[in-house]
Design goal:
With 403 residues, the protein is α/β, with parallel strands linked by helices. The chain has helices spanning 7-44, 75-80, 104-113, 130-140, 162-166, 168-171, 191-209, 222-227, 230-234, 241-250, 272-289, 291-319, 326-348, 355-376; strands spanning 62-67, 90-96, 117-121, 148-152, 177-180, 182-186, 217-221, 255-257, 263-267, 381-384, 387-391, 397-402. The protein has 2 domains: 17-42 and 292-394; 59-269, Spore Coat Polysaccharide Biosynthesis Protein SpsA, Chain A (Alpha-Beta Complex), CATH 3.90.550.10. It contains 14 helices and 12 strands. Strands 3-2-1-4-7-5-8 form a 7-stranded mixed β-sheet, with helices on both faces. Strands 10-11-12 form a 3-stranded antiparallel β-sheet. Strands 6-9 form a two-stranded parallel sheet.
Length: 403
């Protein structure tokens, strides 16, 4: 006797398949809308600087610390933007691992040209990330009259009034810490470069919702830095910004995200290899320093990747009349939502990237980032500038190897 499935069973299978199809789409789209649209609205909202009404005549000594390694044909042009700020009372210290680094000669040239510029040779790290090690050594050598510290990456371009504006909330005492992010500027508009630009804009939007130092630059009162004993934590951890964020969060220190004073990071000609290495670090750092953020990032990327595939299959299968009517409807809503979000993100990004290339690069970024997220589950190390850091909880470095 042939078995004929009952109507109840068929309805159950249909309902189950719809929910299986819908859950990742609903989760990835709603979570993206909640966080990104809120972040985008904060970035685009007209900023009212409470201190701008005051006469800007408070100029405590600011020390900019810039870890540097390697040199490109753009290094002088980029770094010099931080040396010609219109702030009247600041110094700059370049932090170099050793004198054999190609950037060392450029640093010496800067020291000869600018009286407010100096350098420190840190040596190689043995218990922490090289960047952390150099920054700790540089802070320990500072003059006693330094009141404000600025930690800035060496690939960032700043406007001439950047230091004066980004330090204002700290100088006038509204906040002890101010941070900002950066916008990647691909000089060659190719897929890897646009992927990195999309990533940066997304992170910047998220940081306005959940304030945390994450690349770019951070301004902090020296008294707060010392009070929180940041150097002690940096002395055995792999990365500076995320661990600093954890210290500030634990101490309930409020962070001001300066959305109007972001920096630019030019990318001459990005490749997938360099994009992969960059995203690899960005995803692996929080695995050790902020496991909750990392776990959500991995789950969200997997959900988004599955949603892209399933919604596309739902729409395509509809054309051949082989799908249930709910599938193309749900898939269509998902793509409308994603395209709307991407368009809004593009309006935040100020670089001249065609919207067609922006939209086309997004699925590539999702698939690459998802692969890296899945891969990160099985890794206990981070590769960074020729060194492999084996890390444990909290970002503590247990071993360093040359690679």
């Amino acid at each position: 006797m042939r078995f004929i499935p009952s109507k109840i069973f068929i309805n159950f299978i249909s309902c189950y398949s719809i929910w299986l199809y819908s859950i990742p789409i609903i989760f990835s789209l709603i979570s993206a809308c909640v966080f990104l649209l809120l972040g985008i609205s904060r970035i685009t909202r007209k900023n009212v600087d409470k201190d701008s009404q005051l006469e800007d005549d408070v100029f405590p000594l600011i020390q900019i610390l810039i870890p540097v390694t390697g040199v490109t044909d753009k290094s002088r042009e980029i770094l010099e933007t931080l040396l010609v700020q219109d702030y009247p009372n600041y110094r700059v210290t370049f932090v170099v691992e050793n004198e054999s680094d190609p950037v060392f000669n450029l640093v010496k040239e800067f020291c000869a040209e600018y009286k407010h510029v100096a350098f420190i040779v840190s040596g190689a790290a043995s218990k922490s990330g090289q960047k952390n090690f150099g920054l700790v050594k540089a802070v320990s050598a500072l003059a006693a009259d330094v009141e404000i510290l600025v930690f800035c990456d060496s690939t960032n371009v700043a406007r001439a009034d950047w230091l004066k504006k980004i330090s204002r909330p700290v100088r006038y005492g509204r906040f002890e810490v101010c941070t900002t992010f950066r916008s990647f500027v691909p000089e060659t508009i190719n897929v890897p470069g646009v992927c990195q630009a999309i990533y940066a804009t997304t992170v910047f939007a998220l940081l306005t919702v959940m304030p945390k130092p994450w690349g770019g630059a951070t301004v902090i009162r020296k008294s707060a830095f010392d009070r929180l004993d940041v150097s002690k934590v940096w002395s055995n951890t792999v990365v500076d910004d995320l661990t600093l964020g954890n210290i500030l969060n634990k101490a309930n220190v409020k962070i001001y995200v300066s959305r109007e004073n972001f920096l630019w990071s030019p990318i001459k000609k990005q490749t997938f290899k360099r994009l992969f290495a960059f995203l690899d670090r960005q995803i692996l750092f929080p695995k050790f320093t902020n496991p909750g953020i990392w776990a959500f990032t991995v789950f969200w990327h997997i959900s988004l990747c599955v949603s892209l595939v399933m919604s596309s299959i739902g729409l395509i299968s509809c054309l051949f009349g082989v799908s249930m009517p709910e599938f193309p409807i749900i898939g269509g809503v998902f793509w409308i939502g994603i395209l709307t979000l991407l368009t809004r993100l593009k309006s935040v990004n100020q670089e001249k990237i065609p919207i067609t290339k922006w939209l086309a690069a997004f699925p590539v970024l999702v698939f690459v980032a998802t692969f890296i997220c899945v891969r990160s589950i099985f890794l206990d190390y981070i590769d960074w500038y020729g060194k492999r850091y084996y890390c444990s909880y909290g970002g503590k470095v247990s071993e360093i190897r040359e690679v």
